[in-house]
Write a structure and sequence with these properties.
The chain is of the alpha+beta class and 440 residues long. It has seven helices and 29 strands. The longest helix has 17 residues.
């Protein structure tokens, strides 16, 4: 049976072009004309609620940054990057010095307050770009932990690179400051594929057709973005080449083509097709060859998400009477249901580390982002703002999520960490920002 909630929300193709989705189920219902089993487990890890102390890091002087703009542009970018990483409590070293008066023993005083590390640097213009010499010290021992020289086109890129190096040196984990996010920008009846830095700066529109677009998915090679676009009366899958600055068609099937998800090696995509009369999950090669059907059920199956190991696919199905999250092997023979709580669960997104699945659940009339382990255990709610929060997308570090939140009468992209301890709304201007996908 089709999902009746989707039918009531979307009664015509025109309504989809304005506010086109309540998840992939809505699209499937429209294009279809309103129409527990346990197997082999790829990952069996539980989410451990382990607390940790944020490291105190002092930002000292960044010499030369005044030549790049008013105030302390490099300092401000690095400070935000380190705070959004979730690992640090950032202290302004220069403000501390002003409070002390005599700054003759600055390092000793910085160490005395119990700070863990000190970051200092020098910024200078280098031809058409910027060079950033950064020095990271352990305040307790006074030892230099690392020295890095970053060269970039502008101060913002250089600051992001330094921030990521600090995260790597002090935690051993990859930072996210140099990543980007792609998304669909909806203004009126116009829909475009856009990209921006992870913090919302350097917004750039890629497409310029105005036609309906949805479901972007960044390739693991960072060279292209797959997305669905309305062409010749029905959506097909396209691939935007970042190097060439243009899109090429990947599919040419009747009905709906949506929800591309890449394997980690970038050789295959999983997607939703209705070409055989029902919404099912398929797999195909990047060049469009080797199409193979995975699911076979009269219910609606959609929104595939590959596991990092490439042996399983999470997806949404209403085969039990309401939208729920399932996992299947690539033959569709080993199937298990993950969600049993709540009347509406959708938009599964598998963590890059494989230990968690983010998804959207409706409870008390609101949609919120939740996470669980790959067996459906240890459910935890991430968003709590009393608005609709949906479309979760993982950062490549597996510790951060981007999601869409309805705030101020429009949809915004919001960055948070795995525990939901902070929220950063990306400054992307007017219009609805939907369906984020993070660069690798």
């Amino acid at each position: 049976m089709p999902n009746l909630a989707c039918i009531s929300l979307l009664s015509s193709f025109r309504s989809i072009s304005r506010r086109y989705r309540r998840g992939w189920l809505a699209l499937c219902v429209l294009f279809l004309l309103a129409r527990p089993v346990w197997g082999q487990r790829e990952v069996e890890m539980s989410i451990r609620e382990t607390g940790f102390r944020r490291m105190d890091i002092i930002l000292g002087e960044f010499q030369g940054q005044e030549q790049l703009g008013q105030g302390r542009p490099v300092f401000d970018i690095v400070r935000q990057d380190l705070e959004l990483s979730g690992y640090f409590r950032v202290l302004d070293g220069l403000e501390l010095v002003r409070d002390w008066g005599d700054s003759g023993q600055v390092r000793a005083k910085w160490a005395a307050i119990g700070a863990d590390a000190l970051l200092e640097g020098k910024v200078e213009r280098d031809g058409k770009g910027v060079r950033f010499n950064a020095f990271l010290s352990d305040l307790a021992s006074g030892r230099l932990v690392g020295r890095r020289t970053m060269e970039a086109l502008d101060a913002r890129q250089a600051a992001h690179q330094v921030s990521d190096e600090v995260v790597k040196l002090l935690t051993g984990e990859r930072g996210i400051a140099s990543t980007q996010v792609a998304f669909i920008h909806q203004q009126g009846n116009r829909s475009e594929l856009c990209i921006a830095d992870y913090d919302g700066h350097n917004l750039r529109e890629l497409t310029n057709t105005g036609t309906l677009k949805f479901g972007p998915a960044w390739s693991p090679e960072h060279d292209a973005i797959a997305f669905s676009m309305l062409a010749e009366g029905s959506p097909d899958l396209f691939l935007w080449s970042l190097a060439e600055g243009r899109a090429r068609r990947m599919t040419n099937f009747p009905g709906l083509v949506a929800g591309a998800s890449w394997t980690r090696d970038g050789k295959k995509v999983a997607l939703t097709l209705t070409k055989d009369g029902n919404s099912e999950i398929y797999i195909m090669n990047r060049d469009g060859s080797g199409l193979r059907r995975v699911t076979r059920h009269p219910g609606i199956d959609c929104s595939p998400s590959w596991s990092p190991g490439g042996r399983e696919i999470a997806f949404t199905s209403d085969r039990a009477g309401s939208p729920q999250i399932y996992v299947t092997d690539l033959d569709g023979t080993e199937l298990r249901r993950l969600t049993f709580t709540g009347e509406y669960n959708e938009s599964a997104a598998w963590s890059p580390k494989g230990d968690r699945i983010a998804y959207v659940a409706r409870e008390a009339g609101f949609f919120d982002v939740w996470v669980m382990d790959p067996l459906g255990r240890h459910r935890r709610r991430i968003t709590f703002k009393g608005t609709s929060n949906e479309d979760p997308a993982w950062a490549p570090d597996g510790r951060h999520l981007m999601f869409v939140s309805t705030r101020g009468n429009q949809k915004e992209l919001v960055l948070t960490d795995l525990m939901g301890r902070f929220e950063h709304v990306l400054p992307l201007g007017r219009g609805d920002k939907e369906e984020p996908t993070w660069s690798p």
